[in-house]
Amino acid sequence: MIAKILCGYRDSLMHAMRVINDNGLGIAFVVNDHGVLCGTVTDGDIRRGLLNDVDLDQSIERVMTRQCVYGLVDDDYEALVGKVSNKIKIIPVIDKAGKVVSYFQYNQSLNFPVAIPNLNGNEFKYLFDAFFSTWISSSGKYINKFEEGFANYADCSHGVAVSNGTVALHLALLALGVGAGDEVIVPDLTFAATINAVLHAGATPVIVDVELASWCIDPVEIDAAITDKTKAVIPVHLYGQPCDMDAILDISRNRGISIVEDCAEAHGATYSGRKVGSFGSIGCFSFFGNKVITTGEGGMCVTNDAELDERMRVLRDHGMSKSKRYWHDVVGYNYRMTNLQAAIGLAQLERISEIHRNRECYEQMYKDALKHIKQIEFQKDDFQKRRKITWLVSLLMQGQNEREGFISGLKQLGIDARPFFYPLSDMPIFKNYCKRPTKNAKLLSSRGLNLPTYESLKSVDELKKLFSCWQIQ
Ligand SMILES: Cc1ncc(COP(=O)(O)O)c(C=O)c1O
Q: In this structure, is the dihedral angle defined by the CA atoms of residues 45, 51, 52 and 56, taken in order, positive or negative?
């Protein structure tokens, strides 16, 4: 590949023009007979040379930039980025002898962000309809349709649409009466919203470890952490993988412990054929822009318990009595979703099976494109009762160094990969809530990463091409 960018210092301008034309990069690196870098020549250098009466058959030396910017093989990504500028985006990389061994190209705008929502269904049509109906606040037909439709999708009888996934968790805990003096068990490996919601409710979080194989909360650890203050457990179906719900329900049954499922990353995942969100007292979903389906910001609590549904509706709406307007029996919140958001959500929900199918295809594409990198271990999908969905394609590398190297290598290819969440227990504001070792969470957090996953991803061939130049050092 590098040969396509090189010219000899005795070559003609014409030759340099051909090299630049063929490589499509707008630049060639000029080397001596030993491959040592002498300078660079760009489209612009040649144009300026021609305007100054240099002939096409004269040597490149007449126009090349001798004092050029270059990288060193030992430079890390940050160092290389520091050397490029607005004007110079491609630089040669040389070894200790000064020989050109590769090049660095800086892609300022990433081609592959981690997530891009697909709004190509009825999203705009319904949004337009909601807009022109003037029902743009939190009442309107789309709210009702989206709540009904999503609850039904999640195998539940009630759905309470809210403004985001974090307040869905908070509302669920409040409706269950969780508050000061209560303990709520949460996994160490999750997004901070899970533990924040517990703290917002005034309860004490108890952080426990996750299973090494599934990355989800470990039932054995839950059991060991239960005290007479335990009021709830929040199993998080992490990165689309369902938790071991039989074991979790067995532990909590008859002990006055509620289960609030955090399904923010797992819309449609199933356990024993039933959708997540329908196992606990309440299931909480997020519809943030990077989620399986989105309403921009948004969330939903689903439940099969009519009383909990009623309580959540009151709390969501300022604590206002449903039978007596402007009468407040409890201190409430404004956690409502707008009709505009619900209009988008309903259109997304119509296509959720198609969205899942596409995401699964992309996961398979990544598996194909990366199979030459043996150090990669994709998220497990062969548990007996658990059927995961593909949220963000997730994988483990052998160690933290390999993970960091892979992420920065991907960045150079314009692929925005993300490291896993930090363990909650690593963060000073949360660490005192963790009393037991959480070695699996720490290990997974140091080795895991998520890849861009969305419907407008490229074909497997393009991905293969991108990944083929990347190798574990
Ligand atoms: C596991 C988990 N829980 C809760 C949330 C909170 O959702 P939101 O961002 O909609 O508040 C998220 C989302 O980002 C999440 O990943």
A: positive
Pick the CATH number of 123-350 from 3.40.50.2300, 3.40.640.10, 3.10.105.10, 3.40.1710.10: 3.40.640.10
The architecture of the domain spanning 352-468 is Alpha-Beta Complex (3.90)
* pLDDT < 70 stretches in the chain: 1, 78, 107-110, 456, 458-466, 468-473
- Rounded CA-CA distance 194/145 in Å is 27
CATH 3.10.580.10 domain position(s) in the chain: 2-105
Length reported for the chain:
473
Q: How far is the CA of 229 from the CAs of 104, 205, 226, 236, 261, in angstroms?
A: 57, 11, 8, 21, 19
Check: CATH 3.10.580.10 for 2-105? yes
Q: Closest ligand 1 atom, CA of 298?
A: 10
List every span in the chain annotated with CATH 3.90.1150.10. Answer: 352-468
- Residues 199-215 have pLDDT tens digits of 999 999 999 999 999 99
What is the rounded CA–CA span in Å between residue 385 and residue 257?
Answer: 23
Of 162, 166, 241, the one to substitute when testing ligand 1's pocket (max ligand atoms within 8 A of C-beta) is 166
The alpha carbon of 286 and the centre of ligand 1 are apart by a number of angstroms equal to 6
pTM for the whole structure = 0.79
The set of protein residues with a Cβ atom below 6 angstroms from ligand 1 is 164-166, 190-191, 193-194, 236, 262, 264-265, 286, 288, 299
**279-290 confidence digits (pLDDT tens):** 999 999 999 999
Residue 286 CA: nearest ligand 1 atom is 10
